[in-house]
Write a structure and sequence with these properties.
UDP-n-acetylglucosamine1-carboxyvinyl-transferase, Chain, 2 domains, globular, 23 strands, single chain, alpha/beta
Amino acid sequence: MKHLVRAAPRLAGAVELPGDKSISQRAVLLNSFANGTAHVSNLCEGDDRASILRCMRGLGVEIEERRDCGVGGAGERFEVRGRGMGGLLEPVQPLDAGNSGTAARLVTGLLAAQPFFSVITGDESLLSRPMGRVIQPLRRMGAEIMGRGGDSLAPLAVRGGGLTGIELTQQVASAQVKSSVLIAGLFADGETTVIQPAKSRDHTERMLSAMGADISVSGHSVTVRRSELAAVDVAAPGDISGAAFWLAAGAMHPNAELRLNRVGVNATRAGVIDVLQQMGARISVENVREERAELVADLVVESSALQGVEIGGSMVPRVVDELPVIAVAASLASGATVIRDAAELRVKESDRIAATVDGLARLGADIEEREDGMVIRGGRRLLGTTVSSYGDHRIAMAMAVAGLVSEGETTIDGAEAAAVSYPGFWDVLARLSEA
């Protein structure tokens, strides 16, 4: 599908965001083997929601949509009836994680702990993404896992159970790998410790603690011990990764004021706010409050004079999903922006370094691809043209934001990819552009 974006004379309005994908998927997965029944509201939208629901239902978990759940929050509400630590069922068919790397890696950690045989697969994009960093530690714990590409690619065949805790020192900070190992560690004998080079998103640790797990956090180290979980209701906050597109658009557009309500601002995820503010973005963080161990706030962004910055090191795990749209903002900033230490971008739904550089270069930006990032020299006019999403939801939406500030018309080829995480994106963009 192609989608045409025209330069908008003004951007204004309020946005209610889809539920945070990371929190939504963990809420469904962890409550599936907890004791009791949980209600989850404002679950993430699109293919990622379908992926985690499909996987957990494939393991015998009863999950149904309910309108009378007692939990607050917007969006649909689902009731998850936990099966307890030993209650999951051997799946008859392969579990299909679709396009969701989060679902694939976290569910694999759960499967590694189950005393039965299972297979997990996904779509064409997921089957090309590396799984070795999850497979290797789970094998060390005692699980048998085989896959394509020398046991590094899905589909994965898993025979689990009988695990022993390990200490894993990560070379690259990855919340998905950390979470997969911690989930397996809930079923393992002894302690399971993950030591990170930099702190990655900590939704798993927060939720496990709220559910009564025996878990401790010290600096960049997380340790979990065999634990029973108690079901907990979750109202997922708005997704900060979805908010990032509107924050960047509002900051870089010459005539904009946008309000984003009830956005998750967990410190391990809110790096996009910090980076844009460092660039000079006028972003107000209002009404900060805590909801079920997660920080939530309302965000207001206005037209801003942006300047180039350097992004690397420990900041990268906090903004890795938002770097494509940050690069778009950098293309209109004064001075140079350097993004480094971000090689992880090459193994997402697309090679996001190559995809971002290609799209912005086609629009006229002065951008240079590097092995672990890119350099953007801002200040050039962007001129509308045809760009590709590369089948990647975040690239599709980043190029749409670029189209809002490009002269003429910009066509995004493969625009349907946005539905993976934000099915209503194009409608919201049209509404804000009509202000």
